Amino acid sequence: MTTLAPAAPAAPAATAATAGRRRSRSSVAGLVILGLFVAAALVSLVWTPYPPMRPATGRFYSAPGGGHLFGTDAVGADVFSRALAATRTDVGITVAVVALALVVGTVWGALAGYLGGAFDAVTMRLMQVMNSFPSILLAMLVIAALGGGLFDVVLITALIPMPEYTRLARAEVSSKKNWQFTEAARMIGRRPMGVLFRHVVPNSLRPLVAYAAINASWVIATVGALGFLGLGIEPGSAEWGSMIAGGQAGIVTGRWWISFFPGLCILLLATAFHLLGDGLSDDDLDRRGH
After folding, report:
1. pLDDT digits 0-9 by tens, 199-242
2. What is the mean pLDDT of residues 35-61?
3. 124 in a domain, yes or no?
4. Are 265 and 86 in contact (CB under 8 A)?
5. DSSP letters of 130-145?
6. 176 and 202 in contact (C-beta within 8 Å)?
7. How many CB atoms lie within 10 A of CB 91?
8. Closest by alpha carbon to 263, among 213, 228, 211?
9. Maximum distance among all alpha carbons in the chain?
């Protein structure tokens, strides 16, 4: 009698497929939430229920409901209108910070990884020095010393995570600069910088973009913290951190909505970036594994 061999278990494949669907769902959820915030930021450019900075749009400390979806604050300003207007400020700062850190860190790290030698050694030592300072404390000290302003917030907040972009770009370029496609580019006469920026860097961007999405969740929380402390962002302005600071006195008296809704916006946007970055990171690991 012929004995049939037992079939190979399908559990690993099923587990991998399930994990892939879960990552896909998290990425889609992150994109949907992020898309809603971007749409809100664009809408706030042309419309808000009330002028965001106008006082006395309703009764002071009016609870959510009626004509004021998120209630009113201590001067009767509409919290929903201010939170909607703050979306373009916080989203705009976050995008500017991440874009600046991504571009500068990628170029710097790519040059260090491709050229090597003294430039690479000096770059890595400088990155270690930059990482030796506590990030939030460094941002507070530098912004306070410079006098504040949105430009300073963007510049300093982008400078803090830049070493991670630089290290990641350096590692990716160092591992790919001798691959077959780069050797082929050199053989057809490409110049070194052409090989780097037309061939090596484009093939190294996926993990950098994944990290940028995760880093954006840190950026939005840091911008909110700076706004809460009144550093770089004028107190009382339409910005989520500043709004939380303006409503903190009302929390103990039951007027929770003034701080709650801006804080919820920060939480949701940070979660969206994290979900998106987590999905991209896992996809990149899967690609490397295969």
Report:
1. 999 999 999 999 999 999 999 999 999 999 888 888 788 999 99
2. 94
3. yes
4. yes
5. HHTS-HHHHHHHHHHH
6. no
7. 22
8. 228
9. 91
Q: How many domains does the chain have?
A: 1
Using CB atoms within 10 Å of the CB of residue 211, give its burial: 0 to 12 exposed, 13 to 18 middle, 19+ buried. buried
At residue 1 the predicted structure's pLDDT band, cuts being 50, 70 and 90, is very low
Token pair listed for 22: 């879960």
Structure tokens at 189: 């006469």
Locus of tokens 């991440």: 98
**Token representation of residue 106:** 């990628």
Residue 208: which CATH number? 1.10.3720.10
28, β-bridge pairs: none
For residue 283, give the nearest of 29, 27, 18, 15 by alpha carbon.
27
Q: Please write the tens of the pLDDT for every residue from 50-100.
A: 999 999 999 999 999 988 999 999 999 999 999 999 999 999 999 999 999
**Tokens (6 digits) for 193:** 């910088």
Query: What is the DSSP secondary structure assignment for residue 24, as one 8-state letter?
Result: H
Domain span including residue 114: 89-289
Least confidently predicted of 16-25, 93-102, 132-141, 232-241: 16-25
Q: How far apart are CA 20 and CA 149, in angstroms?
A: 43
Beta carbons within 8 Å of 67's beta carbon, 6+ residues apart: 58
In a domain, 240, yes or no: yes
Closest residue by Cα to residue 77 from 102, 49, 100: 49
CA dihedral 234, 236, 241, 246 (to 10 degrees): 140
- Do residues 29 and 275 make contact, with C-beta atoms less than 8 angstroms apart? yes
In a domain, 15, yes or no: no
Instruction: Let me know if residue 55 belongs to a domain.
Output: no
CA 144 to chain centre: 23
